[in-house]
Design brief:
The protein has 6 helices and 7 strands; from the N terminus they run E-H-E-E-H-E-H-E-H-E-H-H-E. With 205 residues, the protein is α/β, with parallel strands linked by helices. The chain has one domain: NAD(P)-binding Rossmann-like Domain (Rossmann fold, 3-Layer(aba) Sandwich). A 7-stranded parallel sheet has the order 3-2-1-4-5-6-7, sandwiched between helices. The longest helix is centred in the middle third of the chain and has 22 residues. It starts with 6 loop residues before the first strand and ends in a 5-residue tail after the last strand.
Length: 205
């Protein structure tokens, strides 16, 4: 797919990171904006039926980029089983199902790009749910890459905190990176030849 115009679905395209991915890819490709509440198509990644409907509406595609998924933070002692299940159902299984169900619709030599996060390997206090889900996504991407056929690839982008997010949270902005700089890692996953890679955003800044 390298060097040609592709039909790319960006899930979570209306979010902070998703908007930057769309902005970066749109000049060279046909980008389908998929959001929970707005966009070219709507999708709820916690629902397999909603994901299936997304693919039926879009039809055949060359690449999918997911910048979607939520989890809940908090110290383990204050977290309930349901709190942990939010991340498992949404950010983890939501993205897993984007791949699992998308295999019927993706073209030969296509690619999937998922989003985990640096908390997988660099946890902080109160991030056990995020760290668990992000680590699982990294493992899923590496393992499923071994099973891919028809030249299909899968990679996972692992971003740190965005500067904009830290500002909203009242945290130290100096430890983050502006969301606009995340796009290069996603571009490399989509337009490159990598398979089973975990892309550390900081290496592309």
């Amino acid at each position: 797919m390298v060097g040609r115009n592709m039909k790319i679905i960006v899930v979570g395209a209306t979010g902070l990171i998703g908007r930057e991915i769309v902005k970066d890819l749109s000049p060279r490709h046909e980008v389908i904006i998929a959001g929970h509440k707005s966009g070219d198509v709507r999708v709820d990644i916690t629902s397999a039926d909603s994901i299936e409907t997304l693919y039926k509406r879009v039809g055949r595609f060359d690449a999918l980029v997911s910048a979607a998924g939520q989890a809940k933070g908090g110290n383990m002692e204050s977290m309930t089983e349901e709190d942990y299940l939010i991340g498992l159902r949404d950010k983890l299984m939501g993205q897993v199902n984007l791949v699992r169900l998308g295999m019927k619709y993706i073209n030969d030599n296509g690619s999937f790009t998922l989003t985990s996060g640096s908390l997988a390997n660099e946890p902080m206090l109160g991030t056990s749910s995020f760290s668990m889900v992000n680590a699982a996504l990294n493992g899923f991407g590496k393992a499923v890459a071994l099973e891919m056929k028809r030249g299909i690839r899968i990679n996972v982008v692992s971003p740190p905190f965005a500067t904009e997010t830290l500002k909203v949270l009242g945290m130290d902005e100096s430890i983050g990176i502006p969301a606009a700089k995340f796009a290069a890692a996603y571009r490399e996953s989509v337009e490159g030849k990598h398979n089973g890679e975990i892309f550390d955003v900081r290496k592309y800044v």
